[in-house]
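Notebook B, p. 112. Complex prediction, attempt 2.
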Amino acid sequence: MGEFGLIERIRRMFDEPSPSVILGIGDDAAVCRYQPGRVMLLTTDALVEGVHFHRQYTPAKSLGWKALAINISDIAAMGGVPRYALVTLALPDTWTVEDVESLYEGIDQCALAYGCPLVGGDTVQSPDGCMLSVTVLGDADERKVVTRSGAREGDLICMTGEMGGARVGLEVLESGADKKRFRHSVGRFLEPKPRLWEAKRLVEGMGVSSMIDISDGLTSEIGHLCRQSGLGCLIQEEKVPVSREAVRWSEARGEALTPYILESGEEYELLFTVSKRQFEGWQEKGLDRNLELTVVGVMMAKSRGMLVQRRGKTYPLSMKGWDHFGR
Amino acid sequence: MGEFGLIERIRRMFDEPSPSVILGIGDDAAVCRYQPGRVMLLTTDALVEGVHFHRQYTPAKSLGWKALAINISDIAAMGGVPRYALVTLALPDTWTVEDVESLYEGIDQCALAYGCPLVGGDTVQSPDGCMLSVTVLGDADERKVVTRSGAREGDLICMTGEMGGARVGLEVLESGADKKRFRHSVGRFLEPKPRLWEAKRLVEGMGVSSMIDISDGLTSEIGHLCRQSGLGCLIQEEKVPVSREAVRWSEARGEALTPYILESGEEYELLFTVSKRQFEGWQEKGLDRNLELTVVGVMMAKSRGMLVQRRGKTYPLSMKGWDHFGR
């Protein structure tokens, strides 16, 4: 049934759990009211050995960094500020004390970099692989929380940064290719940098209509925005910025670039929508400077479906996101 | 090195993480300031297949209930009210959709029973066993938060309810004995009932000097109170209330009752300290009515060590708590 089918079933079971829960299961983070005008954001993400990482090419320190970073990215994508982190670590007895310390060093570095201290956790034994589950609590101005469902027809679809690097990083590590030649991609895969600063600027000074972070691939995330906003879309594939290393890697392997553009997961860039008028206003005032923003498409009526334009032709945008559960 | 050694090392790495973190790693829950006079409590606890539960005798629904309940118990032990829960579920492909729905039904029942709605989570694939990690966010009056470190010399050591049932429940399930004859114990092990109401009364209307929930066994928890309060103790074993089923089970097996009294984990009763004068005041006013409280010992100077009295003789209280990590 897949991860998204399961989430949908769970969501239905827990509909309308409490009046103070503004937004429950189904966005990047839950949104709960906690004092007038302020909301609390709660998110949790886990990394499982053999599913999300393999020890032979994942340094413990990177694992720690990543486990926290991907949760901070969820808070950023809601327009919030991360405040506190909790870590649950299930450890097999093959881990040494030094491994565990490296892992916490990675968590600590990420915590310091993004101002999100680790305040607690649980350490348990695991009979098989390692699992690391992190919860981050953040907060936000209630009026400025950005969900997946606020996009409107005609809104521009924009993203920060570029695509492809994380997938290249994974493939380089898996294939044993020369890491130094793809240093940027490997770093991006192992220790992603959540776009917290960019999200804060987009939300506080500029205003976006919907937002999500790219954890499962561009196609999959656009699918979430379309479904939850009740719209369709047209993506212009040539406009999506791709990392130079991704171009080099796909050429060297004689493979199409499209999967690196549309399906590369764990990029942790921000994908958001904004009205054309608003976007032009940013450009006039120079608000988009230093943000590495690119317009990659437009939101359309639901009846148009989800489309991608490639070399002048239009295709259905197939939903090949990274499904952590049903692959 | 064991779970507690590891927690201590981690705690040292993350000392003083932020001025708003009042209490970080090392108590039942982290305590963070979030508005004048109010604190946020954050706690996380995980259940790992093959370590904390075995599928052959753990119904999915009970597993869901328990995973949330043990976190609510941590919030209760700090004197707080649970508000929101997040669940991370790592599932092997042997689980059916019905299993997953039962598990969430158990979570939902517990959430409703204790007013702590599930607001989010993450569902991921697991290559081996199942793991369930729950985080609960609660809050409390800042002046009324109860930690493990507030006990004073001469304070009475009290507990709610009785001991032994959870261990009997586990042994009954493991041995395949007749569950119906030990229904109470099996229920207690599979679906523990956190003492939220009792904790609220103890903290709001009565006042206790330190508190902890009994998840790792009486000896282990008393050890935490002693260490973190810088004291010793004397436990009177005969005074510790034991469940009738525990007496029956230990007799039938020709085994000593002591382990059921001192080492039975996952009881989720409250263990707390209170001054003698205060305790007598409760009795005069009848405040302790309906609370099933029992005085089981007294806090002493650190130099006296940790002692247990049994049939008129005094022994050192050995530290055989359930160490989830180093057993």
